[in-house]
Amino acid sequence: MTKIFSLGTVALLAAILVAPVGQARAADLDPIAIRQVGMALQTGSFGFIRSVVAAKGDVKPLEAPAKAIARWAAMIPAVFPAGSDKGGDTKALPEIWSDRAGFEKIAMTMGEAATRLAVAAKAGDADAVALEAKAIGDQCGACHRGYRAK
């Protein structure tokens, strides 16, 4: 039930974010709001993954949230366009834009770990899931240390 609720919630929020509203265009979307919603969803998905790993539970249901994290990781650079460091309640540091390659590498590495976690979850490989969950957490921490204000 939790998996169904989580996937349904993610799908609903994604639809709200990307569905055209009237004549809304991409230029009218607030990248700060989008990234904050995306990061909150990622936090929830990752929290679920970590709780299952810590409880040594069945890892097979972790395939879907891992895939969601991988898809979000691919989108992270796009929701940090130039100029989106101002105008909202953001904790983004200027280093996101001055060290763009480093920032994008962390997002890409996190996405790769999430993809590997999804494969391991589908196979029921709890040890590999735990290893990749740690890798995702390491990338989250690296990004927060270098690119997010405290």
List the main descriptive attributes of the protein structure presented here.
single chain; Four Helix Bundle (Hemerythrin (Met), subunit A); 0% strand; elongated
Account of the protein in words:
This protein is an all-alpha fold and 150 residues long. The chain has a single domain, classed as Four Helix Bundle (Hemerythrin (Met), subunit A) (Up-down Bundle). It is 70% helix and 0% strand. The protein has six helices and no strands. Helix 1 (2-18) runs antiparallel to helix 2, helix 2 runs antiparallel to helix 3 and helix 3 (63-75) runs antiparallel to helix 5 (100-123). The radius of gyration is 16 Å and the shape is elongated. The chain starts with a helix and ends with a helix. The model is unreliable at 20-24 (pLDDT under 50).
Tell me briefly what this model is.
By secondary structure, the chain is an all-alpha fold.
The percent range for strand residues is: under 5%
Second-tier CATH architecture:
Up-down Bundle
**Major pleated sheet:** none
Backbone CA Rg: 16 Å
| Helix run count | 6
Domains, number: 1
The separation of the N and C termini measures: 35 Å
- CATH topology assignment: Four Helix Bundle (Hemerythrin (Met), subunit A)
Look at the structure and name the CATH superfamily.
Cytochrome c/b562
- Unreliable stretches (pLDDT < 50, length at least 5) are 20-24
Topology:
Blueprint: H1 2-18, H2 31-55, H3 63-75, H4 95-98, H5 100-123, H6 126-147
Helix pairs in contact: 1-2, 2-3, 2-6, 3-5, 5-6
